[in-house]
Structures are given as C-alpha cells and as structure tokens.
Amino acid sequence: MKPEELEVKAAAELAKQQAFDVRLFTCSSRGCQSSEALGVIAGLKAELKARQLESRVQVNGSGCMGLCSKGPLVRMTSKTQKDILFSEIKPEMAAMVVEQVVVPVLEGKTIEKPGGDLEHHTLDLNDPFFAMQVYSVLENNGKIDPEKLDDYIARDGYKALRKALTMSAEDICKEMLASGLRGRGGAGFPTGLKWDLTRKVQSDVKYIICNGDEGDPGAFMDGSVLEGDPHAVIEGMLIAARAMNATQGVFYIRAEYPLAVERVEKALRQARVAGLAGKNVMDSGWAFDFEIRLGAGAFVCGEETALIASIEGKRGTPRPRPPFPAVKGLWDQPSCINNVETLANVPIILLKGAPWFASRGTEKSKGTKLFALTGKSKNNGLVEVPMGMTLRDVIEKIGGGTDSGLKIKAIQTGGPSGGMIPEHQFDTPVSYENLQQLGSMMGSGGMIVIDEHDSVVELAQFYLDFCVDESCGKCAPCRIGGTQMLHLLNKIVAGTGTAEDIKTIRKVAKAMQKASLCALGQTAPNPTLSALRHFEHEFTERLLPVATPKA
Amino acid sequence: MTAITYTVRYRLVQFGQSLVVTNRGGAWIRGEISPEGAVESGVLSRDWPCAAGVQTPEILPWGARPGKRGGRGTMSTPIEVATAVKVAAPKAPAAPKDEITLIANKWKNKRGSLIMALHDLQSRVGYVPRESAMRLGHEMDVPLARIYEVVTFYNYFKLEAPGKYVISVCLGTACHIKGSAELLAGMEKELKVREGQSTPDKEYHLQAVRCLGCCGLAPLVSVNGKVYAKLKTNESHHVIERIQIDKPMAEADHESLAE
Fold this sequence. Notes:
The complex is a heterodimer of chains A (551) and B (259).
Chain A: H1 5-18, E1 22-27, H2 30-33, H3 37-50, E2 57-62, E3 74-78, E4 84-86, H4 94-106, E5 122-123, H5 128-131, H6 149-154, H7 159-165, H8 169-179, H9 191-200, E6 207-212, H10 221-228, H11 230-244, E7 248-253, H12 258-273, E8 289-294, H13 304-311, E9 335-339, H14 340-352, H15 354-358, E10 368-375, E11 381-386, H16 391-398, E12 408-413, E13 419-422, H17 432-437, E14 446-451, H18 456-470, H19 476-494, H20 499-515, H21 519-523, H22 526-540
Parallel strand pairs in A: 1-2, 6-7, 6-9, 7-8, 10-14
Antiparallel strand pairs in A: 1-3, 3-4, 4-5, 10-11, 12-13, 12-14
Helix pairs in contact in A: 3-4, 7-11, 7-14, 8-9, 8-11, 10-12, 11-14, 18-19, 18-22, 19-20, 20-22
Chain B: E1 11-15, E2 18-22, E3 28-32, H1 81-88, H2 97-107, H3 114-125, H4 130-140, H5 144-153, E4 165-170, H6 173-177, H7 180-191, E5 204-209, E6 221-223, E7 226-228, H8 236-258
Parallel strand pairs in B: 4-5
Antiparallel strand pairs in B: 1-2, 2-3, 4-6, 6-7
Helix pairs in contact in B: 2-3, 2-4, 3-4
C-alpha cells in the first residue's frame, strides 16, 4: 500500500458505511461471546435477511463496550437518531430488536427509549458509567469490527504509522517522551526513555516485544484491547520499531486468551496483505514482520527477563538485571518490551500530538488508564478514565457503588503485587505516585471492590497463595519467604495465630521486598502489608485469645 | 495388589508406566507399575522415610497440580496410592506419529519454539503424552528432560489425559470475591473428586483455573470452552445438570477441536 492510498481506502469504506441506514454492533469479545453474542449476531442477520433489509442494515461484531456484566451488548447507530445501547440480548431476542426498534427507525420514526419487553434491556448512555469515562484507547471499541482492517483505516488507522515513516527515530522518541506516556503494565517507566535507551544501543538485530501475558487474576484490559482493536497495537508496535530501529516484532500472548490470539493473527495477515507489515511497509522499502508466541499460564512471565526466557522456549525464570533487556534481551540482542495498553496509546499520541496527550492527567501521570472494575461493584466491566480522576468518582459514580447496597470497605488495585486502599482514602486522584503512596500500585489495572462483609485477611491470603503458587522458585527469599508468610497467614485465618506471628509476617515481608530477584517476590507481600497497614484490627480479631492473668 | 495408605509429604507422579516419587528438593525415586496398576518395586512401602512432623500429605497423580486453595499441600486426607494409580493410568491414545512429524517440521527450524510445538500437541490430543513428547523431542532434537522441565513449569500443560468434559472453575480474584471457592467445593462434592482429578469413568475432569478474563460475569465455570456465567455459589448441582443437558453441544465442540 502506498501512503496516499490510506485516504482512498478510508473514503471508500466510509462511503460503504454511509450506504447503510442503520448499523448494529454486537460485542464479540470473550465475555459477551460466552453469553452467546455470536448467536445474537446470527439471529440479527437471519431476521434482517427474512425482512430483506440486508442492504439497509449492517450487522457487525465489535470490541468490548465496557459493561461486561450486562452482556451481550448491542449498539445501534443510525443517521437519523442518537445511539441506542441494548443489554443482555439473547439470540431469541434478535427478532424483537429488529421488529420493535430497527424497523421503526428505518421507517423514519425516532425512538427515544424502546418500550415493552426491551425497556429493561436498554442502557442509558447518559449514565455516569458511560458519561464520565474518557475514551481514548477504547475509542474504537463498539465502533469498528475488530476483524476488518478497513474499519480501522476509516477511523484514521495507520495514519500515525505513515507519519512515523517520515520522522527520524530520535524524533519519535522525543515525541513519546514529551507526551509523558508511562508503561501501562504497572511499573510506570517512561516509554519514550525506554525506547531511546534501546535506540542508542548499536546492533544489527533488535526486538520489540508486546507483553500480552496478562497474568493478574481479575484483570482483562489487555485481552480486551487485543480483541477489540488489534490493529492499534500492531500500529503501535510498528511505530515503536521505527523509533528504535528494531528488526523484528514479537507478540507474547496468554494461551488462555484464544480469541485475542486469533484476532491478532488475523489482523497480522490483513496487514501483510495490505502492505502495512512485511517486506515493504507502506512502500517505504522498510521490511518488518511479526511473530506470535503463546504463554502457558505462568504469572512470573509478565516479568521482562522471564518473558524473554519463555519466548526462547525455556522455563520462565527471571535473571538478575543488569544487563537490562535494552542491552541484552531476547537471544542476547537489544529488546524493548512494552505492554499492550502502552502500545495502543502510541498511534493516538503520534496522530494527535504529545501536547494533546499531555493535557490530560496529573503532573507526572498523563493520559488515560484502563481499569477492570470487578468484585462487588454494581457496574462490572472495562472502564477508561483520565489520570487524576479521584478513586471515589471511579468507584462510586462509574462503578455505581456496590450491587448489594452494602458499604464499600476498600478496593484492591495492582493485583497480587498491589495493595488495598480503604474507603476513607478514596478522594485521592488516580496516578502512579498517589497509588504507590497509599501502599498500593497502579499495576496493570485490576480494580476489585470489596464490601464490608468481605474479609481483607482472607483476600490477603488469597493473593499470597497465588504468589506462592506462581513463584518460579529460583531465589530463596521469594520461594521460602512466601511459603513462610502464607503459613503464618493460614494460621491467623484458622484462628490459631498469635501477635508474634504478625510481627514475623512483617519481618519476612521486609526480607522478601529487599532480597527477591524479581518484582514477583519483591511485591508479593504488598497485599498483606497494606491490609495490615489499614485493617490491622481484622488480623488481631482473629488471633488466639490471650489468657488474662487473674486479678 | 496392596493398597498403601501414604502419609508423607512426597509427590507421587506418574509418567507413562513409571511411578515417580519426588520431594520438593527434587530427589527422584522411581517405581514401576504393572498393567494391573500395582506398584512393583518396594520404594513405596510404609518404610519410606517420613519427614518428621509433616502436617500436609501431598500425593498427586502425574501432572496434577497441588491444591490451589490454601496453597500447596492442603489435602486433608491421605489417598490410597493404588487408587491414585488406577485413576491416573488411562490408556489414552497418543497423537498419531505423522501428526507429530508435522508439528516438529512446522517448528523445528524456528528458534525457541518448543512451547509453541507443545501447544500444538496439546491442542490435538488434550494433553502431553509421554510417548508423543519423546517422539517430538526426537524429531526436534530436544532432550526429553528439557521438555519435561518446560511442561512441569507451565500450568497450562497437562501430563495426564483429562476427562471428556473439562470443568474449569475460575478462581481469579473477581470470582474469589464472589465465592468461587464454595462453588468449587460443591463441585468436588457433587463429582466426588478433588480439584485436579478426573472421575473414574473419565467423563469429567475438575480443575481450578486462574482467571478466564470474563470477570464481569463472576463467578463462572467453563466446560470445554463453554462458559456458565453469573452462577450462585450453592448451585453446583444445578451446573452439573446443565452440563449433562448440554452434553451434545460439548461433544460437538470437542470433535471440532480434534479436527
């Protein structure tokens, strides 16, 4: 594809879309597929065919539209009226949607809110859940079919790559640095700096690796982005490759996300056929291609050096750094590892400019962040909020409080590496620094709401158990320390712990934090420590009663 | 055949016809299993050196993961070795030889592709049988020890033929908060097996998994890829009933998977 062909393709696709009076988007991501979304798509198509409306109504799949607990979601867009979002649509309801809403709209009627049986299957788009989110990475979700390249191109897709091809590697790095984008995998290292470090290393072979091994239980942002907008990540990787003169791209994706793998495979095939990847990227003479490697269920493989070992086909055990991957990574060559969400941000920054991106957020944390809002939250699903929004707004307004009406006790962010944040600290704005100060961390973006009936002691036990199970066993502090801590925590949960045990937990935790080889061991004590910090009484309540001396 | 009640903290694992006992430190002792499933060599006697004061007996069939809930080694009762062996010694078909050649040819010229080849193998036969692993290693020029070290490191690989219907109970955080542990316990009771085991008739295999990525639908159970979402924690009986009703669908999925 020549650079100028992008506009032609986009215009052709837009004209095609304009020819339809109504377009229906049914979420075909993992969550909704498990609630029979594919049946809904088939049902809609069959009904429209029976009514001979195929030429006027387009039926599409789409990426995640956020409110996963109410799936499958169906979005209707029309030239003549505002969007309607249907929820919990079953395949047998497809005919009803067509008859009661689509047909009247085609006849020129305006439907404010569908009545009858569909009344309770319509979501209010003015609800804070939708209205308060700021879509940037998720902008395309619900508006394009992730399996169609032309849909992506019609929404300015690959224009950022075209721009990157005219820029010098150094300039792209500078632009990233100016945008203030930081790694969305959790640690928050400035992306521009990481790229620049890799760029400066001289080598004939360099790798750019996309970390899609979302091991944190309770988080599904990266999987949703790969499923909902795979071309954005591919474009981000191409730009990253350009910025550091990388020669090969590698996708490392969890094997537990077969749909994400399938979508990325398909998108890569499309990109190669269209000349956007492969031997001659956009007719520039630059050759760049990708490989896909699957994870196999090891949390530790989210760590850079363990991930590299896994790509090399070995056990995923980390190694000491330095040398950092930027110097000696995959196959001992300079490598840069970026998280899915980070890469998805890249095309947006290049297209809209660093100042635009940096205008959102706090002083040190820019842009938006995806969160997987789950647990006891009323609204469960994928949300995107600007950095700097208070936790309270995210949890109480977007999340809508708890589903049971019980009081929220705390949230847990950062998964097994993060910590708990009690309700009285919810007025803190979301940023890397703030969450760290509260004893938690940004992490990849899991946000689990717990209510007053949930035990933080048991939640801490759950996370520690996970880390002990996932510890690779290479270094003693993590292997032994984790096991000992869990042993003590089990004792406390069983009601046989003593005050001395709490002291020992704190001591072991400190040793683990200081002496573990990789982030898994260094952060494994965090949930327990933060629980102790904010809810120590819950631990002491469970201790063995101390015999009081007789008066 | 003598049934031995085994109460020490060593892992009992099976690889083909070999029975392997290992402690955490990695020392290995092998025994052989006769076709009837009896342990022939004497290593598995009651005289086996017991670690003093061990509180958590842990005996698992080859490939089973240690109990997820409460960490490693929380099985509360000793299992009879003979039973464990019987359950774990299915005569499942290995992948046809030419198929393995196909997989090997696809990957052997790509660096570091062992895990990808193993994924291919497991997606065809449902697990990684010893014989197939040996052949794959031979064709790809990878020692069996390397393959073994990789398949035992990653949770995703199974070393034992799973039951026909693999019931995966999600124990991710969102599901945990919504009581999935209770759901799993109910399933164990209902199927009369423990997590990580198959029913004796090889119909069901019950396993706990970490997060299937549908956290908005918690708690949930997935059976051969079909998801049963937003369950109540006390309705494990109902879930099994639904699985039984849906069987044809699951079977069809299974067949298409095999193709």
